[in-house]
Amino acid sequence: MVICALAATVLQAQTKKAPAAPAAPAAPKREMPTPFKAGEVLEFDIGWSSYVTAGTATVSVLEKKPSYNSVAYYIVAEGRPTSLLSKLYTLYYKADTLIDVYNLLPQRGSLYVEEGKRHRMKTTTFDQAKRQAKYEVQTATHVERTLNLLPLTQDSLSALYVLRAIPMKAIGDKFNMPVTDAGDLYQVQMRAAAYESLKTPLGTMNAWKIVPVITASKGTEPPRGLAIWISDDPRRLPLKIEAQLPVGKFVVTLKKVTG
């Protein structure tokens, strides 16, 4: 068998080869369909414990732009306490993310936090092909480390927008979404727990209640009592988010949409 194979190889080398057909052009990449677009602005009220409105947040799809040898949605979220609470304690959050339009995976995400006199910047830069990310924390010092990721890992802000892009069909539908947040890795199973008519500042709307079941990779305590209501319409808006945290229960309610 080996001799026959060798003889065939020699014969082929001595035979004039026909010219190779030209390679077919690569198919153009297609953007993933999304219910959001550049210019969309979502405004939220944040309730905490006994405070009906403890703060406000704005999340904006600022633009779609070239990024990391691809194209990405640039999304920015900002949160502040009400004027009353800000007199008691200075607090400001700004998160952003770059979501690749072709696969809806994050390229880079960051979180800037002002808590009193303490300022921190946390940045995660993703290499989805290698399933790794570089996590950096900048305070008075600079610390960085490498994270090993599961396939299709999101950051905490991109996860909300990707959740909007995944249609739910029936109660009980579920899917897995790995998420990294502040250097911790979580395996999250999103489950459609209920289909409800929800009263909101935008009016009464039908919504899917999504309950994430969260498992931390290193024993980090995940948030409890987390639920997200996504409108059952073409825009798939995040109407309400609830979370039970050590400092109390937070309720985030969508009050205005533009764009």
Describe the structure.
By secondary structure, this protein is mostly beta strands. It has one domain: outer membrane lipoprotein receptor (LolB), chain A (Clam). Helix content is 11%, strand content 58%. It is built from 3 helices and 15 strands. Strands 8-7-6-5-4-3-2-1-15-14-13-12-11-10-9 form a 15-stranded mixed beta sheet. Strand 11 and strand 12 form a beta hairpin. The longest helix has 13 residues. The radius of gyration is 24 Å and the shape is globular. The chain starts with a helix and ends with a strand. The N terminus is likely disordered.
Index terms:
11% helix; mainly beta; globular; 15-stranded mixed sheet; single chain; 15 strands; 259 residues; disordered N terminus; outer membrane lipoprotein receptor (LolB), chain A
Topology (SSEs and partners):
Elements (H helix, E strand, L loop, with lengths): L1 H13 L26 E8 L2 E17 L2 E12 L1 H6 L2 E10 L5 E10 L2 E10 L4 E7 L3 E7 L5 E2 H10 L8 E8 L2 E17 L2 E14 L7 E8 L6 E8 L2 E11 L1
Parallel strand pairs: 9-10
Antiparallel strand pairs: 1-2, 1-15, 2-3, 3-4, 4-5, 5-6, 6-7, 7-8, 10-11, 11-12, 12-13, 13-14, 14-15
